[in-house]
Specification:
Elements (H helix, E strand, L loop, with lengths): L1 H7 L27 H16 L13 H7 L3 H9 L1 H18 L4 H14 L14 E5 L6 E4 L3 E5 H4 L2 H15 L4
Parallel strand pairs: 1-3
Antiparallel strand pairs: 2-3
Helix pairs in contact: 3-4, 6-8
Length: 182
């Protein structure tokens, strides 16, 4: 939903968040007005909080998204979220449904590959050690890319997760950054 709002708000992917557009075309509804800079700043701060673990994904707000955003100090983002809540929710639900339907074909193989990369780097497999946990977030971007955000969160496009060779090429250097002593 965050990436949908980014594109709806007219923020250039090269300026904020993953520098790749969504796989589906989203028409800019915000325009290039004076509030655009504020929107971009608010969206960037919200994205950072979402991807670095400052906001717990399980802690779903009891308020609607736009009420929550407004309360958290993102008024321009809240305004756009309120105006387009239905379409943004539909987009997010469609991506979630696609992920559930298609991820069984590639997620187990990528998790096995990630474990091999970790073992090759000398990181023991200990799922109970919080300092050895990597979070991978699948996003529907139109290019096979990945970004390290926060200490150990990797935002990866669905197309990257589906491509074993590209996955290894992007993820192996990130493991080296996350676990420098390996």
């Amino acid at each position: 939903m965050a990436l949908y709002l980014r594109e709806l708000g007219g923020v250039d992917p090269a300026e904020a968040g993953p520098n790749s557009r969504l796989t589906s075309v989203v028409k800019n509804r915000n325009g290039a007005d004076a509030a655009h800079g504020q929107f971009k700043q608010e969206w960037s701060a919200w994205w950072s909080a979402l991807t670095t673990g400052e906001i717990e994904p399980e802690a779903a707000p009891e308020k609607s998204l736009h009420e929550h955003l407004d309360q958290e100090g993102y008024p321009a983002l809240a305004k756009l979220a309120k105006a387009h809540y239905g379409q943004a929710t539909l987009f997010a639900q469609q991506h979630a449904d696609d992920f559930v339907a298609k991820s069984v074909d590639y997620v187990p193989r990528r998790l096995d590959e990630l474990e091999r990369i970790l073992l090759d780097h000398g990181v023991d497999h200990d799922t109970s050690a919080p300092q050895q946990q990597i979070q991978v977030i699948d996003v529907p971007l139109d290019e096979p890319r990945a970004w390290l955000t926060g200490r150990a969160t990797i935002v990866a496009s669905t197309s990257l997760l589906q491509d074993a060779k590209a996955f290894h090429g992007f993820i192996q250097p990130m493991v080296t950054i996350i676990f420098p002593g390996g």
